[in-house]
Specification:
The protein has 334 residues and is mainly beta. The protein has 2 helices and 19 strands. The strands form 6 sheets. Strands 2, 3, 4, 6, 7, 9 and 10 form a 7-stranded mixed β-sheet that branches. A 3-stranded antiparallel β-sheet has the order 1-5-8, with no helix packed on it. Strands 15-16-17 form a 3-stranded antiparallel β-sheet, with no helix packed on it. A hairpin with a 2-residue loop joins strand 16 and strand 17.
């Protein structure tokens, strides 16, 4: 019996596909109704792949760090928006969060959670999802901004211990202000806990979702026109522990200091001030990302691969910002 190779490949692709949202348009989506990627970037035909696996990085936070030139959707505070997913491998559920960032993708605050049974109506023993639409509330006190980053994240119940994430560039119509909520949960990614397969115990890892750090984000306000009601947003991050509370305020986009996982190097990278890794130089851990410097104006960054720094770039008109062992690309600091 003869079977076309294209048919075999289609079946393999279908069995390997996981989940991603298709509404709004995730960054670099191949869907025909979505915008083309920004200059220098390519369409992502593997939107459903994870960004982390077994504690190792596959892609940076947000999967793609350079934002679209314009928002793909405009939402209003005090309403709800429907997030629609493609039909893929639901891995018997798991924990999902829907979050938003006002600082280019460095600080995310949670808007909604779907814990235990994400993509299902209850415990499941099938990889075929039964729920592909979720209504995400946008609180009345959610600040407006002409530029915000919406994120969906997921830790799967079965299979390899992975962390999935896609982001969309959106605008929020609403007044200037602040919003406080739980910080987005990250698991199965470098620098964060790795949780085991659920194996029927849907409370696995749930403590990370119910006992998270509280963060406060702020936006400049946006009326829905071509401009905002003030200049770039200010994001305030509040970290609460059992012993103390500390607050740090930074103007957007944020500039983060080099993390402890970053390599110590006196070499100067090209394209900006400060010191950082150099292409081909040794690096500590595969999967670690490091901005070329901490000026908030340099688009260059590096990825540790096979013990060597590999040069990368956020793209023209953006800059690299450090976030733990990951980086994000946003608008340069003024």
């Amino acid at each position: 019996m003869l079977v076309k190779l294209s048919s075999i490949l289609a079946l393999v692709a279908a069995s390997a596909a996981h989940m991603t949202f298709v509404k709004p348009c995730a960054r670099y989506s191949p869907d025909s109704f979505c915008p083309k990627p920004p200059a220098g970037e390519q369409v992502d035909y593997d939107m459903t792949t994870s960004i982390g696996s077994e504690g190792q990085a596959v892609s940076p936070i947000c999967k793609h760090t350079k934002p679209y030139d314009k928002p793909v959707a405009t939402w209003s505070s005090g309403t709800a928006t429907t997030i629609t997913f493609s039909d893929g491998n639901g891995h018997e559920g798991g924990h999902c969060e829907f979050s938003i960032s006002y600082d280019g993708g460095t600080t995310f605050v949670v808007l909604s959670q779907q814990l235990k049974y994400c993509f299902y109506n209850g415990p499941a023993n099938t990889d075929t999802p039964s729920v592909l639409n979720y209504n995400v509330p946008l609180p009345a006190n959610l600040p407006g901004s002409p530029r915000a980053v919406f994120a969906w994240t997921w830790v799967n119940a079965s299979g390899n211990r992975e962390f999935y994430m896609n982001c969309a560039d959106v605008a929020i119509v609403g007044p200037a202000g602040s919003f406080t909520g739980k910080q987005m949960t990250i698991l199965n990614y470098p620098g964060y806990p790795v949780i085991p397969e659920f194996l029927g115990n849907y409370n696995t890892g749930i403590q990370y979702y119910t006992n998270g750090t509280q963060v406060t984000v702020s936006g400049p306000g946006y009326s829905g026109g071509s401009g905002s009601t003030s200049s770039a947003p200010v994001t305030t991050t509040t970290t609460t522990t059992a012993k103390s509370t500390s607050t740090t305020t930074t103007s957007a986009p944020p500039v983060s200091s080099t993390t402890t996982s970053a390599p110590a190097s006196s070499s100067t990278s090209s394209g900006g001030g400060g010191s950082g890794p150099v292409a081909g130089g040794s690096c500590p851990t595969d999967g670690v990302y490091q901005c070329a410097d901490t000026t908030g104006k340099n688009a260059n960054y590096f990825l540790c691969l096979y013990g060597k720094w590999s040069p990368q770039s956020c793209g023209s008109g953006t800059a690299c910002f450090q976030s733990g062992t990951s980086v994000s690309c946003s608008w340069p600091s003024s």
